[in-house]
Amino acid sequence: MTREYKGRCLCHSVEFTITGEFDCFFLCHCSRCQKGTGTAHGANLFATKAELTWLTGESHVRQFKVPDTLHQRAFCERCGAAMPNLQMDGKLLVVPAGSLDTPFDIKPNAHICCDDRAEWDTELHTLACVPGLPT
Description:
1 helix, 11 strands, 135 residues, mainly beta
């Protein structure tokens, strides 16, 4: 049975489905992923055989490619949320994990580009876990 995953942007202007399975899941600590997400790392699922179908709002999806690199990202022009995109001449589907609404079973395979890890991104597992906003 082929899996189908649904996702959307933060403002719900863009909705999509991914049909198929993910090959791997990486947490990338490169400086470009840090800048693109505003966080310690990008969390992206990768697929070579899954298909992306835009349900609504494809015209709101913008692409940005860092010149002279392989790094690119897609985002909703209205809310800025990271969106899936095809890379390597359409051979690789890259899906930001947080863009999916459907739960998925794959766990991260590895932290990558750790030489660029943010200086403050150490021993985060030792911090308190607060169930909501701090008071």
